[in-house]
Amino acid sequence: MAINAVKIEHILQNFVSGTNDIQGATLVSPDGLSLAAVLPGGMDDERVSAMSAAMLSLGERIGTELSRGNIDRIYVEGNRGFGILTSCGEDAVLLVLASESAKQGMLMLEIKRLVSELKLVLM
To answer: Do residues 76 and 83 make contact, with C-beta atoms less than 8 angstroms apart?
Structure first.
């Protein structure tokens, strides 16, 4: 069954526009190819996708080396916000960009809901 990229992009667009403090989201294949993206202006989709795959690869290696098991989430916090990379099944990884004012508990809950919705489309 083919992946419905239009539906995935619609889901991401609704997530970004309907969730406070979310600045962007992209769904990426594990090898760094963009499946769908809703990113802030000025961000290069291909570059973000490649960095997401690199973060995932490095995170998995760290998880293995430190005996932490399979990595569910990689969390980057900077002085201007958050980047959360979350597994979305075997074929995709979700990157969510959020502002520094985002409440982390609410952010994680919203990401969990989004991942559940995306997994249904990816099946």
So the answer is: yes
In the predicted structure, residue 1 carries a pLDDT above the cut 60: no
Q: Is the pTM of this model over 0.85?
A: yes
Map out the domains of the chain as residue ranges.
Answer: 5-122
Contact between residue 12 and residue 115 where contact means Cβ atoms under 8 Å apart: no
Q: Which residues contact 115 (CB under 8 A, 6 or more apart)?
A: 86, 87, 88, 94
What does the alpha-carbon distance between residue 56 and residue 72 come to, in Å, rounded to a whole number? Answer: 10
Classified as helix, coil or strand, 105 is: helix
User: Which CATH superfamily is 5-122 part of?
Assistant: Dynein light chain 2a, cytoplasmic (3.30.450.30)
**Look-up: residue for tokens 């201007």?**
80
Give the tens place of pLDDT for each residue, 10-31: 999 999 999 889 999 999 998 8
